[in-house]
Structure formats: structure tokens, C-alpha cells
Amino acid sequence: MTPLPELTAENTAFWKGGADGKLMITFCSDCAAAIHPPQLVCPKCWCETIESKAVAGTGTVYSYTVNHQPWVPDMQVPFALAVVDVDDAPGVRVTAEVVNADPETVTIGQRMRVTFRNLDDIWLPQWEPMI
After folding, report:
1. Which of 42, 65, 106, 123 supports an S-S bond with 28, CB 3.0-4.6 Å?
2. Which residues fall within 8 angstroms of residue 18, CB to CB, at 6 or more apart?
3. What's the pLDDT score for residue 125?
4. Residue 74 per-residue DSSP state
5. pTM for the predicted model, two decimal places
6. Which residues pair with 63 in a beta bridge?
7. CA atoms of 123 and 131, how far apart (whole Å)
8. Over pLDDT 90: what percentage of the chain?
9. CA–CA gap between residue 108 and residue 82 (Å, rounded)
10. d(CA 39, CA 37)
């Protein structure tokens, strides 16, 4: 069973954007800072005018891990989790499972694109290698 996030005013766009195939990142309306995880107040300028915008949904692997431990019954292992620097959102890194690739082939610097896995009313981002 995959634990699902609690939807809040600040994170709903991020968790539901996948329904439209969009990676939604929060931005400050005043200083244009990209904010992730989503927040109601800009941590750079303290502005409270925040909006979610779709970004390209691509990025570069900053770091990753390959997990071999099945933490819950029926968990498929091995699997890779990648921390990806998101294009169009300076300073934002999104951590998600890597899909459609052998976990042992993930590398730092590898280009990725977002896909989504729908569970209930949540769209979990996943990364897949760009070909």
C-alpha cells in the first residue's frame, strides 16, 4: 500500500496536476521564486501571493538511490528513487520513483521526464529516462 499525501490548500495543484499530465510547481508572484514543497508564503520575500504553474516536466538527476529492501509486503524491489533538478523551476528538486528503466541504469546527470501514477484522487509524479 502506497501512503498518500493529505491534500491542503498549498499542495493540491501539485498532487492533482498529473490528471492533466502537468507537473505543477508553486511560484511567488512578487519575486518569481520557485517554491517546493508548496507553501502559502514565499520563503524568500514573505509574499503571500503564490500561484501554481505548469513546468516542462523535465529535469536532470541530482542524486538517486536503488532500494533492495521490501519495506512492506508485496513491494517490488529493486526500484530507484531519483532527486531531479526540475527545468523551468530554479532550485526545485522533486524526488520520485524512476519507472520504465532498469534501476541499476540510473545515473547522476541523466535527463528525465515526468510521468504520473494515479492512486485514488492523487497523481504521484514518477520519473522516466528521456531517450
Report:
1. 42
2. 114, 116, 117, 118, 123, 124, 125
3. 98
4. T
5. 0.93
6. 83
7. 23
8. 92
9. 9
10. 6
Q: For cell 495543484, what's the residue?
A: 13
Strands (E), the chain: 23-28, 34-35, 50-55, 58-67, 79-86, 93-98, 111-119, 122-129
C-alpha cell, 17:
496536476
> How far, in Å, CA of 121 to CA of 76, rounded?
23
Q: How confident is the model at residue 74 (pLDDT cuts 50, 70, 90)?
A: confident
Q: Give the other-Cβ count within 10 Å of 88's Cβ.
A: 16
Q: Which residue has the cell 514543497?
A: 37
| pLDDT tier, 3 (very low <50, low <70, confident <90, very high otherwise) | confident
What nine digits make up the cell of 87? 527545468
Quick one: which H or E segment has residue 16? helix 12-16
- Asked if residue 84 lies in contact with residue 61, where contact means CB atoms within 8 angstroms, the answer is yes
The three three-digit cell numbers of residue 80, written as one number: 530507484
Cell numbers at 42, concatenated: 514565499
